[in-house]
Amino acid sequence: MEYLDSFLVYLSIEKGFSMHTVEAYRRDCEKLFAFFKTQQIALESADDEDIVAFLSQQKMEGKAPSTLMRQLASIKVFFRFLKKEKKVPKLLAKGIESPKLWSTIPQILTEEEVEKILDAPNSEEIIGARDLAILELMYACGLRASEVVQLKLENVSDTFIKVIGKGNKERIVPIHKKALYQIDHYLNKRQDKSLYLFVNKKSKPLDRHFLWKLIKDYVKKADIQKIISPHTFRHSFATHLLDRGADLRIIQELLGHTNIATTDKYTHVSSQKLMHRFDQFHPRP
Asked: DSSP states of 87-108 as a string?
């Protein structure tokens, strides 16, 4: 990639980095590019959520915290270079802190923890009803934050939702009856004429940053001691389906993954869980 070559020259000539250090930056950036390719993410339109998703995948593959910290450092320097060269519109990964990186990457929620979060909103009030509908939908369908905030009323039927995912690709996802009930409950309390499914107090569509804060608040309210992001619900959705015997190809379709290898990372999480149970209950661990 042209950007990468220019970046490596910058590191070598302007920054005076050693050949070994430059090569480490190359490997880290190439891993990020490979992930972006499987997810159909354009470099120019990437955001912090995409960076966190990449690091989360690396963590699931068993990368050590030190490796994750180095990868994040490489990504920060790379995007700083791109911003300086006016190749991207904004600086990425600035808000992700390296010392606590392994904590900031989304973890998998247990089914019990999901229930505790879903019990947190007060659905008798319109804001609580909206928030519960969002949480139920994210867990029921494994949606990305960007997909949730883009949903319109016309995208929801009695059995399916139509989702516009990465690369503007459309997919149809079945909707659980509990999520559908909460959506109906929320819509019955609304009086605005917005075409968007979820809106704020001013009847404007939500954004991803709002969704991050919303989830953070309810995780705290549920007294769950994990760092959770919107992507955590997507990870948990896929992992729980796999734990209950769902076929990997079905999960791939539900998540909207182009490449089965992207979905395959969840088998690693389930395998770890299986080994933990084996060690815990086998008579000769």
From this structure: SSSS--STTS-GGGHHHHSPPP
Q: Which helix (H) or strand (E) holds 86?
A: none
Q: Which residues form the catalytic set?
A: 144, 166, 231, 234, 257, 266
Domain hosting 144: range is 111-274
Express each pLDDT in 163-178 by its tens digit.
Answer: 887 777 888 889 989 9
Name residue, tokens 């991207």.
88
Helices 265-281, 48-60: inter-axial angle, 10-degree rounding: 40
Could you say which of 104, 132, 159 is where a domain stops?
104
Tokens 């934050």 map to which residue?
145
> Is residue 71 a contact partner of residue 64, using CB atoms and an 8 Å limit?
no
Between the two ends of the chain, the Cα-to-Cα distance in Å is: 49
Please check whether residues 121 and 259 belong to one and the same domain: yes
Angle at 233 between CA 232 and CA 234, to 5 degrees: 90
Residue position matching structure tokens 């930056």: 25
Residue 99: how many CB atoms within 10 A of its CB? 8
Instruction: Report how far residue 203's alpha carbon sits from residue 261's, in angstroms, rounded to the nearest whole number.
Output: 40
pTM over 0.90: no
CATH label of the domain that carries residue 98: 1.10.150.130
Inter-CA distances, 78 with 20, 33, 87, 105, 268, Å: 17, 12, 11, 20, 29
Q: Which residues pair with 156 in a beta bridge?
A: 161
